[in-house]
């Protein structure tokens, strides 16, 4: 199940109706030997009472709860509390990015029997078999209590993604997801509906300081079989009328064996005829050949992460392997020349970053030539190098070992600026850069499908959201 995020924050500011590929994938792994029901309390907007009725009526032996981010971590406590209050004998298994990265915190909650660290497909399969009295207790990927101590196994990583089944979309009303926009304002909306989100590779070798991907999926990039990915898209087209795909991979261009070239070539050869966008494409790996293949295979636009417009910050703080910032506008131009849109991400407010360096990033963002610019506040996610850096420098604005996450505000300060300065700067510069002329606004309208008036509302909401 996915909890309803509104159980934590009534005013989420966004809908977050996400394609539950993870739930369907996990269901595929166990449906052969247990009955499975998927409950997406977020999408169905279930109240706590509704969810309680689900448990009372279905009477499960096991409930798996998935949590994509630590931002909504309280919803895990709410969901597990409801399950146990119906029947304390139900085994509660929690997994997802939040559990993988913060299992020490998660396991403080006695309602959770098992936490899953890492990629849970085989861990879940083996655990359920074991609990059903058929098989060995898993030796990796689990965290659980043994008396007063917490047993922590190694993270589970699946080396061969080719062994995984397709998600069991037949267990849900998948059509409903394929026509729902995941967010109110999202320049990266699906190019066309019905659409599907896909993660076809896992892992990223870069290890940028702010990112948890290394802790979750590791540095080695593993990929599915490109032919199988295209087969799945063809199946989804036939079964659900899919017309576009969002590739959500961590760092798809770093997958070995020319994965991307093969994927795009097969898409072209099989005349797949869908439109697609990519969420995280490493700008410096984009060659002319790749860009041509992307265009021909149906790409509409991509998101590139530059992070900082200052050399020192990139090298010494972010540790991102961008060697030549000067080439960024040229590369973005190559993307846009092919009539693909380009969204660029930046982060401000790193520990030790000076106010002038931050202004340089804003200036760079404005001039880099992207169609739309996202500016994020540096958030020290637990166990990241950024978190450690902020702790070491004593610039973390919280006493808690497990800082709460809110993407609108940082928790970092410096002698020159406070976290509030960064939040305000981010909101107003985002507004100024993206909405400063009618050409940009027209492009955004085209990319988002929103009206001029709707854009105004979103801009106002962003300012109103600045609770200072
Ligand atoms: C794709 C993606 C998205 C997609 C959503 C995909 C979807 N579900 O439709 C989009 C772009 C919408 C998105 C949004 C956000 N994301 Co995101 N996203 C990712 C990304 C790149 C991959 C996640 C994924 O689908 N992986 C593949 C699936 C199969 O893996 P999985 O869901 O983790 O599940 C596996 C295990 O976790 C485990 N598991 C999971 N649940 C369960 C349950 C049980 C019972 C068991 C046994 C096992 C288990 O087994 C699964 C199979 O291996 C990750 C990075 C990463 N590598 O994880 C970031 C990441 C998860 N996102 C992140 C963030 C910050 C966000 C946003 C908050 C961004 C923002 N500021 O708006 C939002 C929040 C959305 C929300 N509602 O919570 C951060 C989270 C950090 C944190 N600790 O909180 C990550 C880690 C990126 C990072 N750079 O650090 N995201």
Structure description:
The chain has 468 residues and is α/β, with parallel strands linked by helices. It is built from 18 helices and 13 strands. Helix 14 (355-367) links the parallel strand 12 (341-348) and strand 13 (372-377). The two termini are 35 Å apart. The protein binds cobalamin. Cobalamin binds at residues 16, 18-19, 22, 25-26, 64, 66, 68-72, 93, 95-98, 100-101, 116, 119-121, 123-124, 182, 197, 199, 211-213, 216-217, 248, 250, 279, 381, 405, 407.
Set out the fold topology.
Layout: H1 21-30, H2 48-58, E1 62-66, H3 74-86, E2 91-95, H4 97-101, H5 103-106, E3 114-116, H6 121-131, E4 142-146, E5 149-152, H7 174-178, E6 195-198, E7 201-202, H8 213-216, E8 222-223, H9 226-240, E9 244-247, H10 259-269, E10 275-278, H11 288-296, E11 299-307, H12 311-318, H13 328-337, E12 341-348, H14 355-367, E13 372-377, H15 385-393, H16 419-434, H17 438-448, H18 452-464
Parallel strand pairs: 1-2, 2-3, 6-9, 9-10, 10-11, 11-12, 12-13
Antiparallel strand pairs: 3-4, 4-5, 7-8
Helix pairs in contact: 1-6, 2-3, 9-10, 10-11
The protein binds cobalamin.
In short:
The chain is of the alpha/beta class and 468 residues long.
Keywords:
about 475 residues; alpha/beta; six-stranded parallel β-sheet; binds cobalamin
What molecules are bound to this protein?
A: cobalamin
Biggest sheet architecture: 6 strands, parallel
- Number of distinct beta strands: 13
Quaternary structure of the protein: single chain
Low-confidence stretches: none
Strand content: 5-15%
Our measurement of the CA-to-CA distance between the termini, rounded to an integer number of angstroms, reads 35 Å
Structural class: alpha/beta
Number of H/I helices: 18
General form: globular
Radius of gyration (Å): 22 Å
Mean pLDDT: 94
Sheet with most strands: strand arrangement: 6-9-10-11-12-13
> Portion of residues in helices?
25-40%
């Amino acid at each position: 199940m996915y909890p309803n995020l509104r159980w934590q924050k009534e005013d989420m500011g966004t809908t977050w109706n996400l394609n539950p590929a993870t739930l369907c994938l996990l269901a595929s792994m166990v449906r052969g030997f247990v009955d499975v029901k998927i409950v997406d309390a977020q999408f169905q907007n279930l109240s706590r009472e509704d969810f309680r009725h689900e448990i009372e009526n279905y009477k499960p032996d096991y409930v798996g709860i998935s949590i994509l981010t630590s931002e909504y971590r309280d919803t895990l406590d709410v969901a597990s509390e409801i399950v146990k209050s119906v029947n304390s004998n139900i085994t509660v298994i929690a997994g997802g990015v939040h559990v993988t990265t913060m299992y020490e915190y998660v396991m403080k909650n006695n309602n959770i029997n098992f936490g899953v660290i890492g990629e849970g497909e085989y861990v879940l399969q083996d655990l359920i078999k074991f609990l059903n009295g058929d098989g060995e207790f898993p030796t990796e990927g689990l965290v659980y209590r043994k008396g007063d101590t917490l047993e922590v196994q190694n993270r589970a990583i699946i080396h061969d993604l080719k062994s995984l089944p397709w998600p069991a979309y037949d267990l849900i009303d998948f059509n409903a997801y394929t026509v729902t926009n995941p967010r109110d304002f999202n320049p990266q909306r699906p190019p066309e509906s019905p659409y599907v989100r896909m993660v076809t590779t896992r892992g990223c070798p870069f290890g940028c300081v702010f990112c948890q991907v290394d802790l979750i999926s590791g540095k080695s990039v593993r990929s599915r079989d490109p032919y199988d990915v295209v087969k799945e898209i063809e199946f989804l087209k036939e079964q659900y009328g899919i017309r576009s795909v969002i590739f959500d991979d961590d760092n798809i261009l770093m997958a070995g064996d020319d994965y991307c070239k093969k994927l795009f070539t097969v898409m072209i050869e099989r005349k797949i005829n869908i439109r697609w966008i990519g969420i995280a494409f490493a700008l410096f790996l984009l060659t002319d050949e790749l860009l041509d293949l992307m265009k021909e295979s149906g790409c509409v636009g991509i998101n590139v992460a530059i992070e900082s417009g200052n050399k020192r910050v990139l090298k010494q703080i972010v540790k991102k392997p961008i060697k030549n910032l000067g080439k960024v506008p040229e590369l973005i131009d190559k993307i846009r020349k092919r009539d693909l849109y380009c969204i660029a991400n930046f982060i401000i407010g790193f520990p030790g970053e000076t106010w002038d360096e931050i202004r340089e990033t804003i200036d760079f963002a404005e001039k880099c030539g992207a169609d739309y610019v996202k500016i994020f506040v540096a958030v020290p996610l637990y166990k990241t190098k950024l978190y450690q850096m902020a702790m070491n420098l004593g610039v973390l604005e919280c006493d808690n070992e497990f800082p709460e996450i809110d993407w609108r505000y940082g928790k970092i300060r410096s002698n020159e600026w406070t976290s509030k300065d960064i939040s305000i700067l981010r909101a107003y510069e985002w507004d100024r850069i993206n909405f400063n002329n009618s050409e940009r606004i027209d492009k955004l309208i085209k990319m988002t499908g929103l009206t001029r008036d709707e854009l105004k509302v979103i801009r106002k909401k962003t300012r109103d959201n600045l609770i200072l």
